[in-house]
Amino acid sequence: MEKTKNIFVTDKESNIQIGKDITSNLISSLTGNMFSFSLGLMLLNITNSPLSFGLEMIIMPLVNLLFVVPIGNIVDSVAHKKIIISSLLSRLLALFILSATIGFFKDNYLFIPITIFVTINTICSNFNSTAYSAAIHEVVNQNHIQKLSSFTQAASSLSAIIAPPLGMTLYSLLGFKWMIFLEIFASLISFAIVLSMHFHYSPRKKQVSSIQKKNTRLTSQIKKFSNGLKYIHRQKLIMEMITIGIFINFLFTSLTIGMPYILSNNLHLGNGSISFLESGNSIGMLLGSLIIGIIPDKLSMKRKLFCSLIPTILSFICLGIVLACLKGYLTITILGTLLMVILGFSLIILNVTTQVFLQKSVPTDLLGRVMSSITTINTSVMPIGTLVFALLFAHIHEGAWILITNGVIMLAYSLWRMTKI
């Protein structure tokens, strides 16, 4: 299948489009993270429920699984700008409805409107992110794909650093109702920026979209989506990346669950050390995103995978060793934060490298189905990993050894699979 090339997007226009995309992403991700944080604080203050900050982790994999087929098919059948605009408008409508109805619910009944909103927001976010990933060829030319992906990720990483303290401050000063209005205002600005962006559609893309629309009633959604799965199955490198990704993502949940638990419950170092290590991870992601957007894209895919995956796993193992063997708040916090910077740095390079490879190699008319399939596969193991390692950390006092063991298993497995590529 022939790939569509963006020979019609100039370097000057690509840079303008990158500027608009980064601005839109920075505004939406910063206010979105602030809103999510304030929403969790509001639920925690009113309901005292442990689900306050975990609601999205439960809903997201379920939504991904239920909507993987229609999202992939729609993204590959409908103009991407229309999908992005529709998802933004649907999210704005959901925010307006939430602001109008949340006052009618008290105590634990607050979970009713919040759960409905989080579900709608997750669906809109999936449509938006998948359409953006598939539309990258229509926004910039081939030479600017890595720059766009890396700088967009940098904006998200910067937001992750700033959003929690800023969100907590504004929530304390204004209250949750005004946080909704702030999110509506920010969403309107992002919407206006998207409207100003130019999406280039090739004649072939328009023709394919027209044919797909006419045949929608004749071709089942499952059959259309299976074409994307068949393409994935035929690509050896993509299959290897998915296989490694499933295994790594499952074991990596032990860090997400275990690191705060070990610092707080096993080592009794308090919330300060947790915040430092989490900030280190975000800073590493920001640095990695900026650097990969600047360095030339000359290394082979295998070398990129090796040079990013192995340091990620080694820093994972070293963090487990620090938590298992060292004592003292200052020593653990400093070394742990440095290791989290390295881990975040190498992890973001791995993620951007993988995303750019898919965007450059997968045919444009299959990109939506391929990206949504891979996202769903990767996120589907998160609830299982969360449950498994939550039980393990609850019953094993020396939880740091779980991290070390998982890291060694990941290292051996990854080196073995690398030889298969």
Automatic annotation (TrEMBL):
InterPro entries, A to Z: MFS (IPR011701), MFS_dom (IPR020846), MFS_trans_sf (IPR036259)
Entry superkingdom: Bacteria
Keywords, alphabetical: Cell membrane, Membrane, Transmembrane, Transmembrane helix, Transport
PANTHER family recorded: INTEGRAL MEMBRANE EFFLUX PROTEIN-RELATED (PTHR23513), MAJOR FACILITATOR SUPERFAMILY ASSOCIATED DOMAIN-CONTAINING PROTEIN (PTHR23513:SF6)
GO CC, any one term: plasma membrane
Entries under SUPFAM superfamilies matching the protein: MFS general substrate transporter
Classification via Pfam families: MFS_1
Lineage: Bacteria, Bacillati, Bacillota, Bacilli, Lactobacillales
Keyword Cell membrane on entry: yes
Annotated compartments: Cell membrane
Main localization, broad class: membrane
Domain Major facilitator superfamily (MFS) profile residue range list: 238-421
Membrane topology of the entry: Multi-pass membrane protein
GO molecular function: transmembrane transporter activity
Signal peptide bounds: none
Record field: transmembrane: 26-46, 58-76, 88-105, 111-134, 155-174, 180-201, 237-262, 274-293, 305-324, 330-358, 370-393, 399-416
CDD domains: MFS_MefA_like
Native species: Liquorilactobacillus mali KCTC 3596 = DSM 20444
Keyword field contains Glycoprotein: no
Name of protein: Transporter major facilitator superfamily MFS 1
